Amino acid sequence: MDFDQAVAYLNNLQPLGIRLGLDRFRALLGALDHPERCCPAAHVAGTKGKGSVTAMMASILKQHGISAGAYLSPYVYDICERVLIDGEPASKPLFAECLDRVAAAAEGLADGPDGPCTEFEVKTALAFEAFRRSEVEASVVEVGLGGRLDATNVIEPRVCVITTIDYDHCDVLGDTIAAIAGEKAGIIKPGTPVVTSPGRPTALGVIRRRAREMAAPVIAVAPGTGGEASSTARAWFGGASPRVWITTPQRRYTDLEIGLLGEHQARNAACAAAASEILLESFGRDVDPDALSEGLRTTRLPGRMEIHGSDPMLVLDGAHNRVSALALAQSVSALAFKRLVLVVGMSAGHEPAAFLAPLAGMASRVIATQAGWRRALPAEPVAAAARRYCADVQTVTPVEEAVRRALGDAGAGDLVLVTGSFYVVGEADPRKLGYSD
């Protein structure tokens, strides 16, 4: 199949929805002769920050001269963004070739006892196949949902990372922090080091207990004051964004510049640094501090505090839950602007009021919108929640029209923020809006 046929094939799998579990996916990988075993891997879970850590680690590996693949979800503007080869999206021919093979194997299993493979399972197998065909030396794999029963949990990584944990997908993962942390901690493998910065003591306790059961050493990442000694159990970070310092069990890095914007990225960078040290050590390689610094500086990821132009400034961020909204509000507050026009659309399963609480009160106007996909939340419930915090609320669909309306309403020195869902950000492609840099 060609690339367009590949995209259409994946779209046709969407009605199958999410079906967590590993047996069906293991059967698919077996039919493909196990591409997931092609190279050493890192596995990254968490509620927030896992995509950033995945991209940072892949960039650090690249700067050390190690060919690296990265699997990310979701994509923002181009489906090929889900599979990175040495920091670049997979080519369309590679994407189509890999899907052609994966689809043939999946269809051969469709009538089996576990039923047809889901869209996410097919995409994940496609990524592993792309890594094998590209002969990457290492991979960094982001969990899709949860961890314990996520399709990516078939890999046997050299290091696991668990980032910030908060309430999200409660209908699937549980409605307590302990339950959610338990699902995330399901990626921990026997004896495999764990780097974690869950942000909540309850979550850290759950992760530590699971790690003890698996005889897995833990490095806990936390903010510091600058004078901490490194140890086998801690990594520290601090500084004023975008310049930070990181102290790991191996060494101290100073005056680091992080390419991804936002103060919360210091925590993600510390996780990425500590985990990269472990992964590189498994290759018999020492960390080059300059290469690590350059890897963090050059990391780019669509839809994460993505800034374009001025007068008005356009900011796109795929924040979609309470914890990410809090981080986004802090990052936006550090920018210079006169008025904020907020364009927001959300997906089903997320609570608009909790998400909008940190953001809508900052806005002079909120434009509620709706992405054009099957699980998008209608614009009106989003608008209703926004009216709790802002007097000027409108509903405009589709997303591109909502953003054009916001840009037209904004003046010199104003800021237009598009957020609430990666699907919303993806329909606000800055290139189509004349904001490509």
Question: Can you offer a commentary on this structure?
Answer:
This protein is α/β, with parallel strands linked by helices. It folds into two domains: 3-297, 3-Layer(aba) Sandwich (UDP-N-acetylmuramoyl-L-alanine:D-glutamate ligase), CATH 3.40.1190.10; 306-426, Alpha-Beta Complex (Protein-Tyrosine Phosphatase, Chain A), CATH 3.90.190.20. It is 37% helix and 16% strand. The protein contains 15 helices and 17 strands. The chain has helices at residues 3-13, 23-31, 50-63, 92-109, 119-134, 170-173, 177-184, 201-213, 265-282, 289-297, 322-333, 352-356, 379-386, 399-409, 422-426; strands at residues 41-45, 68-71, 83-85, 88-89, 138-142, 159-162, 194-196, 218-223, 234-238, 243-247, 252-257, 306-308, 313-316, 340-344, 365-368, 393-395, 415-419. Helix 12 (352-356) links the parallel strand 14 and strand 15. The longest helix is centred in the first third of the chain and has 18 residues, at 92-109.
Taking all Cα atoms into account, the compactness measure Rg is 21 Å
Q: What is the level 1 CATH name of the largest domain? A: Alpha Beta
Q: In the residues, how many domains can be counted?
A: 2
CATH topology value of the largest domain: UDP-N-acetylmuramoyl-L-alanine:D-glutamate ligase
Broad shape? globular
Neighbour order of strands in the largest sheet: 4-3-2-5-1-6-7-8-9-10-11
Sheet/helix structural class: alpha/beta
CATH architecture of the largest domain: 3-Layer(aba) Sandwich
Q: Helix tally?
A: 15
Distance between the termini: 33 Å
CATH H-level superfamily of the largest domain: Mur-like, catalytic domain
